[in-house]
Amino acid sequence: MKLIRLALLAILVAAGLIAVPTTAMAADPVFQMPIPCGLRWTTATHSGHNPKEKLDMVDPGGNTRGTTVLAAAAGRVSVSTFVADAGNMIVIDHADGWQTRYLHLDRRDVAVGNEVAQGAPIGLVGNTGSATTGAHLHFEEKQNGVVKQVTFDGHLVPITWSYGEHFETSANCSGPGDSKFWVDTFADAPGYASPGVEPSTGTLRKGTSYVYCRVEGPVVRVGDSYNKWWLKTDLDVGPANQYVSAYYLSRWGNDEAKDNSGRDIKNCT
Asked: pTM, whole model, 2 decimals?
């Protein structure tokens, strides 16, 4: 009798007289490159990667170190720590058992438990841990603990074994990654409440710092070096939302105000 009922049910379903209930499947995340919008980097794996689907990426123009690392998709930070081989490492948990992993960072800017949007800045590219080939971003996508071939913006990234064989351009453009621009300064920079207007209100320490935007102001000139741009930032010693001269940027030349990735810092509104 049971077999007869099953056969009758199959006939009714085939005839469209009975609908079979379905369970909605959660869509896999659409991962984006974990670097700022528009940057074009080369990707590769190497013989030390096991499995080979683990991905390394660098800026072919040589501005890899210090580039802002962005969340490839929205999620929750489950790991933010330093380990001997991976260096500074961040892991973000996503929907349906997916994870993304970011290794060898110069710095980590998120903590365990933080909720991050796609495109949110989470750290800076570096070469901490056992990264013996120089600064690069090691990136992985995993589902239920298994490393998968990386996808960016809905397409598979080819598995190549050397830099320069394949390039990807970041479409990670919708998140809050442009709210801060990371820059290197070659010396302590005095800060001012308005561009160049005395007295100084404090100091931005030499090294890597974030700035928000740029405005034109009094030209700072020392010998043959000069710069008209002033950068809004939070001072290390002194108040927030002050201005320092872009003259102190260590990566760029006269009248340039770019971040460590080579992007023009946005104008203050």
From this structure: 0.64
